[in-house]
Amino acid sequence: MNRKIIILFLISFLLVDISYSFLQFYNTPFDGDMPGGIVPAEYVKPILENPLGIKIFKEHTTYANPNRFFSHWSFYTYFNSIPFLLQKTTNPLNSAYLSCAIAKTTIQILIIYLLALAVSGKFRFKLEFLIAAVLITPLFQTNGYNNYMGIIDPSTTYTFFYALPAAILLIYFTPFFLKYYYKKEFKKFKYLKIAWIPLALVCSLSGPLNPGVTLVVALLLFIQAIYKNLSNRKKTNLFSRVFFALKEIPKDYYFFLLPISIFSLYSLFLGSYNALAWEKIPLSTLYLRLPQGLYYSLTQKMGFPVLLLILLINTLIIRKKYSNEEGNKILKAFKWIGFFSFLYILLLPLGGYRIYRPNVLRYDTIMPITLLLIFIFGKTTLFIFKNISKRQKTWYIPLIVLVLVIFTNSDEAMFNKNKCERNAIMQIAQSSDSIVKLDGNCTVLSWTIIETPKDSELKTKLLKKWNIISEDKLFYQNSSH
Questions:
Q1: CB–CB of 51/69 below 8 Å?
Q2: Whose CB has fewer CB within 10 Å in the chain, the N or C terminal residue?
Q3: 402-417 burial code (b ≥16 CB/10 A, e <16)
Q4: H or E segment and range at residue 476
Q5: 3 state DSSP class of 205
């Protein structure tokens, strides 16, 4: 088949899939944390006023999420600007839903690009990069398997606190990965290098996962470098071996890993002053719940089992047929992903208990592992594509197509998910009453049904801020009022 036709097909597939995701995002309801983060609520104001959490030390006080400034700031800034720009071309309610869809789609495209870059080692939209992107994209589930291996959360707020920080962290480590895996220097990086320490700070003060992920990655990379250097000096005494092992660690390791590790430790320290109170459960109980969380993630839907099965097949093919330098390199990378996953899961209970994830391990907390598995799926599959014979492709390509079809088919459209919420908001906007009794029974800018008008105050403040309503109103959904 003509190369240009293949490239055109791959690009068309990506455009269709991304457009499909955009429509899914556009038809997703608002979440219950949006009013607090955008209006903002009183508990959010100290976060926005203290980027580095210095208030804790100056005033000897605590407040909510002191180590997540950049997630709160980006969320607040985005939704206090983009909806108003969109209102120049559409009505206020549509602009709010469009803003959510644009944010989620942009973050998804960014993560897919970074993963395809890591898989192919190519910056440009050439054949290898496009194949990598096509392999990765169907695994991003908006509905379907989202509750088990989701990257872009149904909640727009959570997307800013999980997927966006993950994307920023991927950006941070991309030059390091390209240099030490592909032996490629990012030519313009010498001009951007000055921005990497500030970026390390942004990574560390974004979302709940980045500090832990960073410290585990840094630990494993330093262990790998020290072990490699020790192996190269077997004939010298132990003191000399250790001294030279540390001395011979590349300077880039210190540049990329030390500042972000220090900032991550600071972030974890700030997090210990989080004023948000959660139910206290013994650490031993949380560890005992980990197997249940793992079992639940692996057995309720086909997503992870299918992904792990094809990874097993790919690994066996590479080990048996292509045990060359590149093949062994990929298998070694898979082994280190396993080490990371094991350590990361062991550390999860230290993050404490949350009522909405009673088994600790859930799709959002294991997002770093999911991203690594998606990466290694793309990497092993692309490697096999490039090395197998034409005859072997007759059975291998249909196998991979089947995997992609399973994921694509599972991701149902569900283009009416926010219909009830839309109708409820329109009812509030069109009503002449100051307190509106809603007809529907769906959530409206909330995690739960609003039973008393007072509980809707922050929700309607957001609707007024977005110009969806023009005057102060309250609403409720309980017939007893």
A1: yes
A2: N
A3: ebbebbbebbeeeeeb
A4: strand 474-476
A5: coil
* Side-chain half-sphere exposure of 78, counting CA atoms within 13 A: 24
Chain Cα centroid distance, residue 285: 27
Burial letters 28-45, b for 16+ CB under 10 A, else e:
bbbbbbbbbbbbbeeebe
C-alpha to C-alpha distance for 455 and 479, rounded to whole angstroms: 15
**In this structure, are residues 271 and 352 in contact, taking their beta carbons and an 8 Å threshold?**
no
Q: Domain spans of the chain?
A: 3-410, 419-476
Compute the distance between CA of residue 135 and CA of residue 155 in angstroms, rounded to an integer. 25
> In 10 A of CB 125, how many CB atoms?
14
Whether the Cβ atoms of residue 474 and residue 460 lie closer than 8 Å to each other = yes
Contact present, 317 and 387 (Cβ < 8 Å): no
Q: How many CB atoms lie within 10 A of CB 73?
A: 17
Q: Helix, strand, or coil here: 437? A: strand
Q: Which of 74, 67, 127, 96 is nearest to 421 (CA)?
A: 96
List, for residues 352-407, the tens digit of each pLDDT value: 888 888 999 999 999 999 999 999 999 999 999 999 999 999 999 999 999 999 99
